Backbone:
């Protein structure tokens, strides 16, 4: 009987910047070839192993898993192979092996037989060798530098056998091993000695041969077979697979060049031929015949020996991926030191008393039901472990809050994991955990972002590295990163690559060439040049391939002493132990994960409380603050929410103005409504109409009244979807949640409809009722929002608003220090001014490391009056100021900041230079932005020439003299009589415009004056409407507005169009503009490429205080200013009166979901892009700091850049 060929050396895309195909594709191809066994042997790790095992299970292919590891460069000859003994495999620190150069960096790739690169071996796990393989990979990463793991033969030998002496690993010595290289170089004695040395310590040793049709490949393979046969070592045939198809070799070549940081040239390629693809059995038989020549018997034995090796390395999929057996998954549970069941029950009883629920029958019934599920799933230890961690975090003085569906659990509330009472908000445990739900619970904890790493270290200290590891994630190629790597491989100059890459939005790499024709801002960019065609074509083929591994922002595995048997671990960039599995893999592997997410708003709140305590000598327990404060809700309903958690975006400011929240429940609804599901199913308008009494509440059926009463008949929450399904089918909430989850895919929707409709009809519901209910479920279910998540978010949302209303300066100091929101610092500063808070300049004697609050007068905060618009903004923050910190200075180091703060007060610039010891550029920048104005009585502006009076430029000259007079290595020693050589007034003072330009360039914000102040005359002359006057404009009026662009977003909208939402700041408030596709042909390039904008738009009033503009045209304000100064006002009016020439809008086919939801392929769908620069009018220099928020859909460099 002829058996199918088994590939034992296969690299997937998880061989970073080496492989080109994902595990699932490789397994599908193997199944198509009729193969029943397939190995995955990625380089340097098991990153794709779980996905490989799952794919094999789905396709009916038996999985084999191994790893392709680099050998320590010292282990190249028999004499030093084992360095005189069997090493432990673990070295002190992260020392290098002698002469090795490998890993994810430039030395990672290895040409066939290139002696300058380290040798490699392939190690397969035998049927019972998964744990040994995981620990070997962990040891390899511990021995080498980060990204450059290696093993010694002794390390391999140490892990190759188990405690019983039986082999656990199979080692393949192939063409890239020391043996293979010695054979290729005809050093037969050395090859024989190396093979003998390996065979002496590794019981299951195999020689691997392959022929990729390269120079002397077949000859080398034949000689290796001869060597192995003469020494009685088995031989296997492989194809060293790294491609799915032969055509993929071009991508492999690009990856080789990118990995090695060398130009694309034949000298640097790992595989000069295109044969390293997943060949079928017939092709591999031809390879065997080519290697063995006329020896047909040997050619037949070669695949058979390969299969025999494969047989003893086949893994049990359920052993590696326990969730493949949903009925009885073998979970990796944490150790808690005692029986976790009574421990959790005791903590819950204590929680009932502490929360005042010990007499509540509802609470006790709910608790009993939850504990039944938790104990049945054997998760008591997990909950007690998480509770212990949250207790520890709070004991460290770190703010900690629950988020996500975990807030649905009463147990989480009782044992102190979260502060959201699920009974109070009607939250369902089944949304978080139920008997019928496949998978593990996922508790998410928000901590202060500034203390997140401290929390990680505390968890590691508490449980030990053997029991804890962080989760990893793969950074993949998108448009910009693909263009950068391909451009470098093609030899383009770095500055050209940077310009080209930044021109694109953060879209998939496969959309590069489509974007050039689809996006108006790119059509005339010149990037369609044929010289770039190859770059873009190759870059598109990198789409989605993993580029490098990174630490997941929040995932932490909590296990027991056998954790390292279940997952390989390496060091992250921050030196944390990190699993090689991503968040999906760890769940499939039965590993329990806690998400500890660093949230900037939590840090901002903590900092604000510190400032209140420092300035007011008042400690505030934010969790105990009443949640019904009318002044806070008044501020929210007036849309004064910039800086507040979740409700500061233009769309949210419009929504809160319409909804007018008055309770925590209103905030929960608001947060849930601002999601794709409610928008797609058109639930926002009906909810608002019923809330404000413009229409009666309507229910699909009277039996659904109770489920939908809290939102007046409108489905808003996931939990309501579950309730509708439960009521109409009688299936129970657990089954209802399974159905809700299935609504996220087209196949799932079809299956749920086929199940839901007949069952609802059987329960007596009329056809029209069932159809109406299904339409709601179909439109909403896959895109809705979890009420528990919204409830968890609503708490910090309210807390942030409360702090802004009652401690405005302290709150904004926290926002400026920790940057939690979507707007840059300059917008927060302008909001501070609108609230009556003074913005205080940098001062060497008063500034600190972070933003500080100072009293500037009596506090005048009071109730927010909903009075006439003419009354102006309510300044509830008056009486306080915000001091610019040293850390805001561009280029300053943390050590310099510490010295500056420690040395206060200073008596002169010379004193500051001597004791703070700043670098010359930093000292000059501090002078430029006024850091010494108060000390020396300086003030920019007219007159510029001030004989006998010191100016900022005089002080800058003094810095130069101080630097020249300081001996090398002794910057604090001053020349004698230095001050006598300075003539005050020798240089002119800076103008106010120059001072603001310096602030923008050095601080990234305009402190002394708003930028728009310098355009006031032009704006008045052309009739620009200010933000403070928008509420006076009638609906439908066409007006001119202007301001600094502070935010640009292209979110997914229901129509499938790419809609650009832009916010301008004109010093009197925000102006929100909407650019629809119909006007983007003549506006998109200006919107994305300009910092200062003037725009014409139609007023759109959607509520008492909700105003936005539908833009019809826009211009670069700096260009208009230049026209005004050179050609006059009439020329400006002519420019803004021109009728734009119609042009093509945004192209591309919208992504359409099965429920009708359409999304533009160029809407937001990725990480925030790199910051682009803006220019100050009339000056050549460009601010270097973040001046506006740009979303993932933003594209195009500034014109002319």
Residues:
């Amino acid at each position: 009987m002829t058996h199918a060929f088994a590939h034992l050396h296969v690299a997937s895309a998880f061989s970073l910047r080496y492989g080109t195909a994902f595990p699932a594709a490789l397994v599908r191809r193997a199944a198509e070839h009729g193969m029943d066994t397939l190995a995955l042997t990625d380089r340097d790790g098991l990153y794709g192993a779980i996905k490989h095992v799952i794919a094999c299970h789905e396709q009916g292919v038996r999985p084999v898993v191994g790893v392709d590891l680099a050998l320590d460069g010292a282990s190249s000859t028999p004499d030093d192979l084992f360095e005189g003994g069997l090493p432990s495999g673990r070295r002190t620190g992260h020392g290098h092996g002698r002469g090795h150069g490998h890993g994810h960096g430039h030395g990672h790739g290895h040409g066939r037989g290139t002696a300058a690169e380290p040798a490699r071996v392939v190690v397969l796990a035998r049927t019972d060798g998964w744990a040994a393989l995981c620990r070997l990979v962990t040891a390899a990463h511990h021995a080498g530098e980060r990204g450059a793991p290696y093993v010694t033969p002794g390390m391999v030998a140490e892990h190759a056998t188990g405690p019983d002496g039986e082999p656990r690993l199979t080692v393949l010595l192939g063409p890239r091993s020391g043996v293979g290289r010695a054979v290729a170089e005809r050093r037969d004695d050395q090859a024989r000695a190396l093979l003998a040395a390996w065979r002496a310590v590794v019981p299951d040793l195999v020689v691997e041969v392959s022929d990729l049709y390269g120079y002397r490949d077949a000859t080398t393979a034949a000689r290796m077979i001869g060597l192995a046969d003469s020494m009685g070592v088995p031989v296997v045939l492989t194809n060293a697979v790294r491609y799915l198809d032969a055509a993929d070799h071009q991508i492999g070549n690009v990856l080789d060049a990118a990995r090695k940081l060398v130009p694309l040239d034949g000298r640097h390629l790992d595989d000069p031929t295109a044969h390293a693809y997943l060949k079928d059995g017939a092709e591999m038989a031809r390879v065997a015949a080519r290697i063995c020549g006329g020896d047909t018997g040997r050619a037949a034995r070669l695949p058979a020996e390969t299969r025999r090796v494969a047989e003893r390395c086949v893994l049990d999929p359920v052993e590696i991926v326990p969730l493949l057996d949903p009925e009885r998954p073998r979970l990796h549970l944490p150790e808690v030191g005692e029986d976790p069941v009574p421990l959790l029950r005791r903590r819950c009883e204590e929680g009932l008393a502490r929360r005042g629920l010990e007499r509540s029958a509802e609470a006790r019934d709910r608790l009993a039901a939850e504990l039944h599920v938790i104990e049945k799933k054997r998760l008591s230890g997990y909950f007690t472990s998480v509770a212990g961690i949250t207790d520890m975090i709070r004991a460290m003085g770190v703010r900690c809050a629950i988020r996500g569906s975990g807030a649905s659990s009463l147990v989480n509330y009782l044992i102190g994991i979260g502060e959201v009472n699920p009974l109070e908000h009607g939250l369902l445990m089944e949304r978080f955990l139920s008997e019928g739900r496949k998978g593990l619970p996922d508790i998410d904890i928000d901590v202060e972002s500034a203390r997140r790493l401290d929390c990680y270290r505390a968890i590691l200290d508490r449980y030990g590295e053997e029991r804890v590891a962080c989760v990893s994630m793969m950074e993949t190629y998108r448009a910009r990163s693909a263009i950068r790597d391909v451009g470098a491989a093609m030899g383009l100059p770095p500055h050209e690559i940077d310009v080209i890459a930044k021109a694109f939005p953060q879209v998939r790499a496969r959309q590069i060439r489509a974007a050039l024709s689809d996006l108006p801002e790119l059509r005339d960019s010149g990037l369609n040049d044929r010289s770039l065609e190859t770059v873009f074509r190759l870059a598109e083929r990198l789409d989605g391939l993993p580029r490098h591994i990174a630490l997941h922002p929040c995932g932490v595995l909590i296990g027991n002493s056998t954790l390292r048997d279940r997952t390989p671990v390496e060091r992250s960039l921050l030196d944390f132990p990190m699993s090689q599995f991503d968040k999906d893999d760890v769940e499939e592997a039965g590993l329990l994960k806690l998400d500890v997410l660093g949230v900037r708003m939590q840090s901002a709140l903590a900092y604000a409380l510190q400032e209140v305590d420092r300035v007011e000598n008042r400690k505030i327990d934010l969790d105990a603050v009443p949640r019904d404060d009318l002044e806070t809700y008044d501020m929210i309903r007036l849309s004064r929410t910039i800086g507040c958690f979740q409700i500061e975006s233009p769309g949210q400011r419009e929504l809160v103005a319409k909804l007018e929240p008055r309770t925590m429940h209103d905030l929960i609804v608001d947060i849930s409504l601002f999601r794709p599901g409610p928008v797609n199913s058109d639930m926002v308008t009906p909810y608002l109409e019923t809330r404000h009494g413009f229409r009666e509440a309507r229910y699909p059926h009277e039996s659904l009244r109770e489920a939908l009463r809290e939102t007046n008949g409108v489905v808003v929450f996931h939990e309501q979807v579950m309730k509708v399904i439960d009521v109409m089918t009688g299936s129970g909430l657990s089954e209802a949640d399974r159905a809700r989850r299935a609504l996220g895919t087209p196949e799932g929707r079809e299956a749920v409809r086929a199940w839901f409709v007949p069952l609802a009809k059987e329960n007596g519901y009329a056809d029209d009722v069932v159809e109406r209910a299904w339409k709601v479920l179909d439109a909403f279910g896959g895109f809705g929002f979890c009420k528990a998540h919204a409830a968890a978010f609503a708490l910090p949302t309210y807390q942030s608003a409360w702090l802004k209303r009652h401690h405005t300066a302290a709150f904004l100091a926290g926002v400026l220090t920790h940057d939690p929101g979507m707007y840059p610092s300059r917008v927060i500063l302008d909001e501070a001014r609108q609230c009556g808070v003074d913005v205080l300049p940098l001062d060497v004697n008063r500034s600190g490391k972070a933003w500080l609050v100072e009293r500037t007068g009596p506090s005048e905060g009071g109730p927010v009056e909903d009075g006439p618009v003419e009354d102006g903004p309510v300044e509830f923050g008056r009486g306080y100021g915000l001091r610019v910190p040293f850390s805001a200075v561009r280029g300053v180091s943390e050590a310099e900041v510490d010295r500056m703060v420690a040395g206060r007060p200073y008596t002169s610039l010379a004193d500051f230079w001597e004791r703070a010891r700043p670098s010359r550029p930093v000292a000059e920048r501090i002078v430029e932005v006024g850091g010494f104005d108060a000390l020396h009585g300086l003030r920019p502006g007219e007159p510029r020439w001030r004989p006998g009076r010191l100016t900022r430029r005089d002080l800058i000259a003094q810095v130069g003299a101080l630097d020249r007079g300081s001996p090398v290595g002794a910057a604090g020693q001053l020349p004698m009589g230095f001050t006598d050589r300075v003539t005050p007034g020798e240089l002119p003072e800076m103008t106010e415009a120059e001072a603001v330009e310096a602030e923008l360039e050095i601080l990234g914000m305009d402190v002394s004056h708003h930028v728009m102040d310098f355009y006031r005359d032009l704006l008045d002359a052309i009739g620009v409407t200010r933000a403070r006057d928008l509420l006076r404009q009638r609906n439908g009026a066409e007006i001119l507005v202007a301001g600094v662009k502070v935010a640009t977003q292209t979110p997914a909208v229901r129509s499938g169009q790419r809609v650009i939402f832009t916010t301008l700041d004109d010093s009197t408030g925000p102006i929100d503009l909407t650019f629809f596709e119909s006007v983007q042909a003549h506006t998109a390039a200006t919107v994305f490429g300009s910092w200062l904008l003037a725009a014409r738009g139609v007023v759109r009033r959607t509520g008492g205080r909700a105003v936005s503009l539908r833009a019809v045209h826009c211009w670069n304000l700096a260009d208009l200013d230049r026209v005004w100064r050179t050609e006059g006002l009439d020329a400006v009016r002519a420019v803004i009166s021109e009728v734009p020439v119609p042009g093509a809008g945004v192209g591309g086919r919208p992504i359409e979901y099965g429920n009708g939801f359409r999304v533009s392929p160029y809407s937001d769908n990725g990480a925030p892009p790199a910051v682009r620069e803006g220019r100050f009018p009339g000056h050549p220099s460009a601010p270097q700091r973040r001046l506006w928020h740009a979303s993932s859909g933003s594209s195009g460099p500034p014109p002319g850049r």
